[in-house]
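CRISPR-associated protein Csh2
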Amino acid sequence: MSEKTILKKEILFLWDGENWNPNGDMLNSNAPRIDEETGVAEATDVRIKRTIRDELIKKEGAEVVFIKPYKRDENVLDCKTAIRENEINIKQSKADLEKEILERFLDIRAFGGVLPISDKDEMKNDKEITTAGVQFTGSVQFRMSKSLHKVSMNHIKGTGAFASNYHATDSKKQKQQATFREEDFLSYALFATYGMMDNYNAKKTGFNEEDAVKVMDALWFGTKNLITRSKMGQTPRFMLVITYKDDTFAGDLNNSIDFDGKKDDEAIRNINDYKINFSRLKAKLERYSDAIDKVEYFVDYDFEENHKEQFDTSWIKIER
């Protein structure tokens, strides 16, 4: 790891999709998450971090990510076993154990984690094991993401290709009809995700500027490359990255932009049905201008065509 840790950064990320399920709620038949009071869609920070981890695995390799599925003979492993699967020496001192984990796993440097290492019985039987667990506070954190408008949800019914059960000789298990399926999709949603990279926690985990670039790239490209049935068409539209000189920061960036729809919220279906007004955000950043080192942005072609007249001339466009 590089010794150069990051300067404090804020992130505003806008992303959208059509006929999709950005973050299913497993406790509600995997339906999209919607705030019943406001009618806006939601996506958890866990979903955002998973997008980043999945892309890091693709681009950097599975060995740089600790939090991922671990299986043995189709059985899901616990964290203590995963530690051993990664051939981490659990008999070293706690300080050395923490150092090894942070040096090896980018996602732990970024997001932190609580990792059980051993238990009382194992430690009682093996006196060389002295660490029950380790805990890290990550420098990269995200709020719950919310759509900038009320959404319309479609309930779809269909049939599968196969029967739910079949037996060659038992007529009770022979069916002439395939299974039914039901699912819910959002017609359209534009999300605003707010995140922060904290310089103090970065010093503790060794999270550096190179790591920061990899995480931001993974968020952008991971959102686009998440090609599954429920996520097809998910698109990163705009990402603003503000780097500060000191501990001052503007905050609440996701609530500093305005959504100007050309239709009723629930009737919005694509990027051409609205405009994002950046006036309040630019005024806020002007107030903090003395503390800002630089403002950079990623942008999708279509979003840029619709909004480029609003981008401040001091903002630096990141080309990837």
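thats it. The chain has a mean pLDDT of 91. The longest strand covers residues 180-197. bye
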